[in-house]
Design brief:
The protein is mainly α. It folds into two domains: about 1-205, Up-down Bundle (Growth Hormone, Chain: A); about 210-430, Up-down Bundle (Growth Hormone, Chain: A), CATH 1.20.1250. The chain has helices at about 10-15, 20-40, 45-70, 80-95, 105-135, 140-170, 175-200, 215-220, 225-255, 260-285, 290-300, 305, 315-325, 330-350, 355-385, 395-420, 430-450. Helix 10 packs parallel to helix 13.
Length: about 450
């Protein structure tokens, strides 16, 4: 019933599974498509269709995992067993999907990619739900979620170093590089899960009455704070993936810096790391939704620098993307911290803790938005007269339109988010009132349970 407190070292150990989020995102979406499209001969169109089909499985699995974890408590807790179970699922799927035989075809990729997604959902939902349940304090939730976000960003850097180190040591084939990435994750991810399981317990709470599907769904869809947060999260994710999808084209062809893509991308990540403590501190001094407004305003203004970047300037480009990256960490951690407060509102109305379901919905909104961001980005390229196959041979007008595109759509999305957070219904004061009511209910439930 009370918050779980642990030393800084134990909290760092608890946060380690967050490394896997960005590791898997980078490893799956950057390295796997070329492996199967080019080196296993499936072709780009087939691989794209398989990834889309597996993503449908992913989108079904996420809310099912959330509902399941919320509904069943084991002797080891509601979250811990599923983090432990997800580790071998992920290890097996990584082993198979990153080391395909020469005969691997479309069905092979679909089966093992879907298995990886299912394990990935169990991993992220169990760990993030557990993290958000450690405390009911408005500001401590921000610090916990911020710590997880550090892990997410460090994980992305770690997985990017694997091919970089291999290239420095020799001339590995693409298959050898991808296999090494898979082996690295097979070693690191289960180790982070073990350390996490030994670091921090779950927060204890009284058993909850079963909530029927119809009543639970009605409460869910009447939660206006939830709906606003899901739309905001979708727009933030859309902006992130939209920029990432066009990043290579913009840097390579508009800025003429194709050979420095990796170097510049690192500064985009470093910008997020620099911004993270600022957003955490600001969320404690203001509120989470006000901080989101400030962060997205920064995200809307900073890309204007890209409109005036001269081609060929590495120094100015890295500085610009460092500034552009400042708000990226806020885009990730603030919706997760705010979702914990939304769950308190649901808890008041439903009498049940449904953190797993709510986080799976946040994850689902991100999955939908990421796909839409890539789709719209690539669709608009042709609409704006840019042809990726022409590269530097595109007209000056097409290259300039690409510059406008990578700036304009994220600015529009961020402006909508600012409006969504205007008069957001859950403040620090209202969350504390909800927390007091919930804790009083729990004390009464414990007293009733102890009466003969």
């Amino acid at each position: 019933m009370t918050d779980v407190h642990a030393s800084n070292l134990r909290m760092i150990g608890f946060s380690l599974p967050a490394l896997g989020l960005n590791m898997l995102v980078t490893a799956v979406f950057v390295f796997l498509p070329p492996l199967y499209a080019e080196h296993r001969g499936l072709g780009a169109a087939t691989v794209g269709l398989i990834f889309l089909s597996a993503k449908m499985i992913d989108m079904i699995a996420a809310p099912m995992w959330g509902l399941f974890m919320d509904s069943y408590r084991t002797r080891w807790g509601r979250r811990r067993p599923w983090l432990a179970l997800s580790a071998p699922i992920i290890m097996l799927a990584i082993l198979m999907v990153y080391n395909p035989p020469e005969s691997a075809g479309a069905l092979y990729l679909f089966i093992w990619l879907s298995t990886l997604y299912i394990g990935w959902d169990a991993w992220t939902i169990s760990h993030t739900s557990w993290a958000m349940e450690l405390s009911r304090d408005y500001d401590r939730r921000s610090r916990i979620t911020g710590l997880l976000q550090v892990g997410v960003m460090v994980g992305g850097i770690m997985i990017s170093l694997v091919p970089a180190i291999m290239e420095r040591l020799g001339s590995p084939s693409y298959e050898e590089t991808v296999s090494a990435i898979g082996k690295f994750m097979i070693i690191v991810l289960p180790l982070t899960a073990v350390i996490c399981l030994l670091s921090v317990p779950e927060r204890e709470s009284p058993n909850r009455p079963h909530l029927g599907f119809r009543k639970g769904a009605a409460i869910l869809f009447r939660n206006l704070a939830l709906l606003r947060l899901l739309v905001a999260n979708s727009l933030l994710t859309f902006s992130t993936y939209f920029v990432q999808g066009l990043f290579v084209f913009f840097v390579s062809y508009t800025l003429h810096l194709g050979e420095r893509i990796g170097f510049i991308l690192v500064f985009l990540v470093i910008g997020g790391l620099i911004g993270l403590p600022l957003w955490i501190k600001l969320s404690q001094n203001l509120s989470k939704h006000r901080t989101m407004q400030v962060a997205v305003a920064t995200g809307a203004v900073a890309p204007l620098l890209l409109l005036v970047l001269p081609p060929g300037s590495v120094a100015l480009t890295t500085a610009a993307f460092l500034i552009v990256g400042l708000n990226t960490s806020a885009n990730e951690f603030l919706p997760r911290a705010m979702m914990a407060d939304v769950c308190d509102q649901d808890h008041l109305q439903s009498g049940s803790e449904r953190m797993g379901l709510y986080y799976s919905m946040l994850q689902l909104s991100s999955k939908l938005a990421s796909g839409i961001g890539i789709f719209i980005g690539f669709s608009f390229l042709s609409l704006f007269g840019f042809d990726p196959e022409l590269g530097m041979e595109n007209t000056a007008e097409a290259l300039q339109r690409l510059r406008y595109l990578i700036v304009a759509l994220p600015m529009i999305a961020y402006a909508i988010v600012i409006g969504l957070m205007w008069r957001y219904p859950i403040s620090r004061e209202s969350q504390r009132e909800m927390r007091d009511i919930i804790e009083e209910r729990e004390r009464q439930a414990l007293r009733s349970a102890g009466e003969p």
